[in-house]
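Exercise (ungraded).
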Amino acid sequence: MNARRRGRRARQAGWNVLGLAIFVVMVFPVFWMISTAFKSNEQIVSLNPTWFPLHPTIQHFRDAIHRPYFWVDVKNSLIIVSVTVAISIVLAFLAAVALARYRFGGRKLFIVLVIGIQMLPQAGLIIPLYVVLARYHETNALSGVVITYMTFVLPFSVWTLRGFLIGIPKELEEAAMVDGSTRLGVFMKILLPLMGPGLVATSVFAFITTWNEYIFARILLNDQSKQTVTVWLSYFVGSSRHTDWGALMAASSLTAIPVVIFFLLVQRRIAFGLTAGAVRG
Amino acid sequence: MAPAAETMLDRSRRRRRFWGRTLRSAVPYGLILPIVVVIGVILGYPLYWLVKLSTERYGLFELIRHAGVSVGLANYRSVLHDQVFWHTLLRTVVFTTANVTLTMVIGMLLALLLARVGTVVRILLSSGLVLVWSMPVVVAVQIWYWMTNYENGVVNYILTKLGIGNFFEHDWYATTFSQLSLVTLLIVWGALPFVVITLYAGLAQVPHDLIEAAEVDGARSWRVFRDITLPILRPILLILTSLSIIWDFGVFTQPYLLIGQSKISTGNYLMSIYLFEEGYFKSDYGRGAAISLLMLLMVAVLSVVYVRKMVRIGEAQ
């Protein structure tokens, strides 16, 4: 009995050690980015790496934000992201209400559309989007990028919002209708407030995917003053023979920070959107 | 007199009810109308153009002139007779298979591990996974590029110190195999959090008493896994696998940025890079459109399982 318990405890300790090891391996790249961003240049290029910068410097962050076009491109990203998310959430919410609350002819076709579009590889769309937008002089314009971003934000938002709507019991709305509220009244007084968290979570997730997007921005925006932050970051390497690793890691950290914060806020709520229904929890 | 008035009243009431019902049944259509119109314009119209472009000669000149020259199926013929296309397709299939297999196998193992470790380690490990999950792809590429740099990359240092071999100034970008292996590691690293956390959530559905009963009956952990856990996780595994296949088949940003444009060549193309280089970079939009269409068709075939499954879920609720 005792021996068996000891064996179990040893095995448990083994699993814990393995878990810790995997934690270290998985998190190491992120740690290395932050660590490098705070090191002095001598420490960075040294053949014997410094693990923890004991005398951190913020010089690299200063260098990164003073590189040409950083602030302009951050502003571009913010404009593109907010316009895309604002338009998409409104349109998607209406469609999600239809999917979650009504049965109608063509509903299945609409669902196929919403799910199918999300599976289209972005690379497969660059040629037609580029050519069509060029015809209407929308290349090298933020508005053109917004259009392309909506192609993937819209279907994703419909599907996620639908999931949140299903979680709100229909009976609440029916009770309000019986009490004499109009449909619009029910919508404004019941559905909208209850959907608050869902709308916020979906918007934040849409924010993250658009902020992170690379390929559409890469092909559509040529001027450095028109680019987004991800494209700016991708041109960091190769602009000179010697990469300024410290500044690159500082810039990477700055690009990742808003995403990481937002992601931590909504991850629990939204993580299962893509597999919703398959995980019953 | 009275009956006539009643029928008139009836009729108007009926009419009002008819219009009310029609109006109400129009509500869902009104709700989806805006998005359908927008998607039609921003996606439907470009897709129509995709088909049209694929049958035209359409380069920079035609782009400026706003008109292509019809060439029938010449673009398709050119692509299908291109050795590079077939090599790229084969490479992409092998690459996707490797990525998906690694992601799913390691993901499953890590999910099982997550269920076995103590609370503290579990919280630590899952927070770490969420942190990795949140990394933007472009940022992740820069980090990996820095870590695998041949002069002072930390990967070379660690591998040498661990005694795995002498990796001093080892160039990971020297061969196609090595380049694509790095891309695979980057992709698997980035994909694991989603897979592990989803599978771990799925493991919570496996009834505890069922496993205990099996263990009392003397079943080994492999048998418990095969006969109890696996069948319950099957639907989730199916969805995760199809999603991974679709994503990895069409992956662009990681290989394009990690290998670096200067080192991209016909010898290390993946499908989306082939399409990008041949269609966009060389401004041969007609031929690029033909490649795009072929690629979209392949992905459509790969997505059938996933889309059908999700549509069934969507219809039920």
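Further reading is listed at the end of the chapter. For now, observe: Chain B has a mean pLDDT of 90. Chain B is about 80% helix and 0% strand.
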